[in-house]
Q: What sequence folds into this?
């Protein structure tokens, strides 16, 4: 994607000048200007199959799903590497999965994983308590309505409660997405919690993020169904296609955000 500084290069002539240790230097990749004006939903799926080595990416991605803990982290890192590839070359292409870059992929995926873990540990207990309160309230209302009307009211309230819970989950997803993106692209845990950036991102592309989530849900279910028809063997490649589709949607959202005057996230190399 870019020519990174060589840590083994001989020092310059001015060897006594104060220099920053290489371990503290993080090469930053160039981010071209964005001219995107809309989302291209079909492109997010079709681009996967235009790469000449897309079958190998499917194979390596499937292998990653069978490696406990580390495998999914590696492929998550590859997802965000794909976002960076598409950003740097303006959507022209992406790099096929390369097992020789196992460690850089792992490093790239570690930060969004840790951010998601911290957010989950904070939110899951609150959501569980809210869910229990809702279930108890619905049961109490249905019981008070009597034997005839109770089941009908309970069913209606349960359906409404489910819709409210799904709406809340989608809203949280919209808030978390820019946090994961920033953590992965900058390779810094603390960068995810730049709440001014999160607010700005949601304000500029929040509607498109909601549509992207719905699009991923529908296409993901269809891909899974196709994979199950193929004697369940195709489920894992279907997951990989869905994840690469998600990477392209994240790229498009970030491009749209920047085109609307949003902040440029430093694209830090994971080498």
A:
């Amino acid at each position: 994607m870019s020519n990174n500084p060589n840590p083994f290069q001989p020092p310059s002539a001015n060897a006594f000048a104060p220099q920053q240790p290489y371990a503290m230097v993080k090469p930053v990749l160039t981010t071209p200007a964005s001219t995107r004006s809309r989302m291209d939903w079909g492109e997010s799926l079709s681009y996967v199959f235009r790469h000449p080595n897309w079958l190998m990416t499917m194979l390596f991605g499937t292998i990653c799903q069978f490696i406990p803990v580390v495998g999914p982290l590696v492929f998550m890192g590859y997802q965000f590497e794909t976002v960076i590839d598409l950003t740097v070359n303006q959507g022209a292409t992406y790099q096929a999965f390369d097992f020789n870059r196992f460690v850089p992929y792992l490093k790239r995926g570690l930060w969004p994983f840790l951010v998601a873990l911290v957010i989950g540990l904070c939110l899951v207990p609150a959501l569980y308590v809210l869910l229990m309160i809702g279930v108890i309230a619905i049961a109490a209302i249905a019981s008070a309505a009597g034997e005839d009307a109770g089941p009908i009211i309970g069913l209606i309230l349960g359906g409404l409660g489910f819709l409210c819970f799904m709406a809340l989950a989608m809203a949280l997803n919209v808030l978390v997405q820019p946090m994961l993106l920033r953590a992965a692209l900058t390779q810094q845990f603390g960068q995810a919690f730049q709440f001014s950036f999160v607010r700005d991102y949601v304000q500029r592309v929040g509607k498109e993020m909601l549509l992207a989530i719905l699009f991923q849900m529908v296409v993901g279910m269809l891909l899974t169904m196709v994979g199950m028809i193929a004697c369940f063997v195709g489920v894992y490649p279907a997951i990989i296609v869905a994840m690469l589709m998600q990477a392209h949607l994240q790229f498009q959202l970030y491009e749209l955000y920047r085109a609307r005057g949003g902040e440029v996230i430093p694209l830090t190399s994971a080498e």
Notes: The mean pLDDT is 84.
